[in-house]
Structures are given as structure tokens and as C-alpha cells.
Give the backbone structure.
Amino acid sequence: MNGWKLKQEPNAKEYGVFVHRPSGIEQTGLCRAEEAKAFLTLRLEHAVYIEASWERGPLSLGALMLWLNAERALVRLDEHCEHYATDPHVSYDITQLPETFVNPPENGFKGNSFQEDLHRTVTKAQATAAALYWLATGDKLSSLHWS
């Protein structure tokens, strides 16, 4: 049994969601999983960075971060250590161009851009599915590979 099973306790699911888009920042206060999923779903199209955190009182018990570009996403789940999602159908190919992502200017990220190899990313649809699954269950989406 892992610590994420605590999430299934009554009233244990409180999330904060932070979405950075070119037009600005939107965030929730602490909210329930269904509210967090609705907030995230409505703002995905133009988002460049999304962070959802599971909180209990003053403690952060996990965080899911998505860096998004037009077609791909870098997905990181922090639960005692960093886990990155990869697409099991994409393997390393030296001829593939890297994907470019942008950090938000807030929270010490400084708004810089960075690149990741294609095989270290997932599609936006996979990232969305991983985020919604994590918000609902606290678990990693099993159709992706996780480091």
C-alpha cells in the first residue's frame, strides 16, 4: 500500500490548480477533485504550464506538472520523488527534433524555454488523461511509462 491510498479517505481530496496561459494566470483555491478536473479541462487548449497539487492542511502530498506545446507535453508527477511520463509507443530516434516548452515566469521558473527529446514526452491527449486520472485516483495512468 502506498501513501496515495490516503487520498481515498473522506474529505482528503483537496487540490489547488495553477494554469499559465499566454493571456495570464488562473488558479483555484483549495477545491475538490471534480472542481479541479472541470477547471483544468476548460483551460487546457491554450495552456503552456499547469500545476495541480494535492494538499492536506499546510502539507503538499503530491504535485502533477504539465508543460504543454501545440501537440506534446512533458508530464512530471512528484510523489516523494520525481516521476516523468513517457509514451510507450515512441522510442529514441536520433533524427527526431526535440520539443520546445516554456516555463512560466512565476514561482522561480523565470519564463525560460527548454527542450526535451520527443521520446521523453507524451501527446497532449495522454497528458490530459494522466492529469484527470491522477485527480480522480491519485495514481499514475498505467497506459504510460513512468520513470
In short: The first helix runs from residue 33 to 43. Confidence is low (pLDDT under 50) at residues 1-11. Residues 3-146 form one domain. Residues 6 and 73 are 28 Å apart (CA to CA).
